[in-house]
């Protein structure tokens, strides 16, 4: 595997899940693969889980790891070609990327949507430059539009906890004070469409996700109706994807607190499990009672980030 961005990059999902459970049984069994190999993790944005779980995954595989927070200690990077660099940006991405590539064997990059241009964000302008100019395999640690390591961990978690062969999984928008990216819901939709689940998306009008991620999923604007009989509730805020009104891209259109996942919402489900990628704002996205309930999977879900990252790095090491 040279690039990990979309669910298709993993190939057959059943095989990938079997590999994940194999890794989970003994996460150190592939230590030989990473000997004298270096993973470079580049963060343009904050992270707790991705930073720690991916470092742990690389160490599980016997790799060396270098972590760089681009905005803390590195030179400020220009990303646009043709700019006269007379501002505060000292270095261009076009030099920085091949230099970073020269110190490692595999690169992971986190670079969120800037919301400045829908076109640039959805064309994955930053990550595609890493793919093109680093000369190394690149895995996405949440880009402008996708968060595949999260969705793979989510899928592993659903597989572990599901009680029926084809569970009903509901992705629900929930309120948040600030504009958040669409990467998590985009990827989750893409992965659930590829998995064997009954998948429903619910959100207020105006929050329609890009059709390339929604695929054949059912979209239900009545949140309570969507929750009926659900086996898994996956809550997440996202800002306006700008599908119906491009001028609203990245805006907060609603802070409707009636969408907060509380016990009344969970009561209409099939005793559903509650999921969220974290970090989560309590009593905006989900109430204390629901996130602390025995049905909450947020901690095992986060723990599975180590497993998804170990499988992805293993696949990349095998292809070097
Ligand atoms: C980010 C987001 O919503 O995409 C990262 C989640 C994994 N969350 C925040 O910026 C709070
Ligand atoms: N879920 C997730 O990716 O968390 P971090 O932003 O803390 O890495």
From TrEMBL:
It catalyses: N(2)-succinyl-L-ornithine + carbamoyl phosphate = N(2)-succinyl-L-citrulline + phosphate + H(+). One of its GO terms (molecular function) is ornithine carbamoyltransferase activity. Its EC number is 2.1.3.11. Pathway: Amino-acid biosynthesis; L-arginine biosynthesis. It is an enzyme of class 2 (transferase). N(2)-succinyl-L-ornithine binds at residues 142, 176, 236, 281. Keywords: Amino-acid biosynthesis, Arginine biosynthesis, Transferase. Residues 12-160 form the Aspartate/ornithine carbamoyltransferase carbamoyl-P binding domain. Carbamoyl phosphate binds at residues 47-50, 75, 110, 147-150, 277-278, 305. GO terms for biological process: citrulline biosynthetic process; L-arginine biosynthetic process via ornithine. It comes from the Bacteria. Residues 184-312 form the Aspartate/ornithine carbamoyltransferase Asp/Orn-binding domain. Pfam families: OTCace (PF00185), OTCace_N (PF02729). Gene3D superfamilies: Aspartate/ornithine carbamoyltransferase (3.40.50.1370). PANTHER family: ORNITHINE CARBAMOYLTRANSFERASE, MITOCHONDRIAL (PTHR45753), ORNITHINE TRANSCARBAMYLASE, MITOCHONDRIAL (PTHR45753:SF3). Catalyzes the transfer of the carbamoyl group from carbamoyl phosphate to the delta-amino group of N(2)-succinyl-L-ornithine to produce N(2)-succinyl-L-citrulline. Is essential for arginine biosynthesis. Homotrimer. Belongs to the aspartate/ornithine carbamoyltransferase superfamily. SOTCase family. This is N-succinylornithine carbamoyltransferase. It comes from Candidatus Paraprevotella stercoravium. The lineage of its organism: Bacteria, Pseudomonadati, Bacteroidota, Bacteroidia, Bacteroidales. The gene is argF'.
